[in-house]
Design a protein that fits this description.
This protein is mainly beta and 176 residues long. The protein is 5% helix and 45% strand. The protein is built from two helices and 13 strands; from the N terminus they run ββββββαβαββββββ. The longest helix is centred in the middle third of the chain and has 5 residues.
Length: 176
Amino acid sequence: MTQTPEIVVLGQLGAVYGVKGWLKVQSYTDDVEAIFDYHPWQIRKQGKTQTVKVEEWRRHNKGLIAKLVGIDDRDAAHLLTGADIEIQADQLPELPEDEFYWRDLIGMTVVNTEGYNMGVVDQLMATASNDVMVVKANSNDAFGRSERLIPFIQSQYIQTVDRENKRIVVDWPSDF
């Protein structure tokens, strides 16, 4: 049985820039320029995927622009606007034991230090000061919560992250 490789979205192709096939690039990587460390890219638009190579890239104002191999004019570039930039998950670097990719945390059960099941990590958000877990509460939550926002600060609120059992233990009150 062949297993389909896990796909990770690294960014998105934006508007056309100029007439020679350049496109604006929105990067979702922590260091925005790191998107160019991964190759080749798989780009997906309207359910169709194609492999592309970056011929050249540079910073432009506060953003990034890229020229893809074989995309030489504005019309060809326009067909790619809005496409997701993807790679296979196994292309991502291994992280130290105490660091996590957001995709690894999503779906984990969150339990506080008193053993109360607070729900499941639905998504994470970046804020100016730290990342925040959005925990979707169980339907029968004793405190009537539908979701909780818990700062992902390992030395303060996050006690343990158990990858194997998909469980996060937090020092967070059940009624908050």
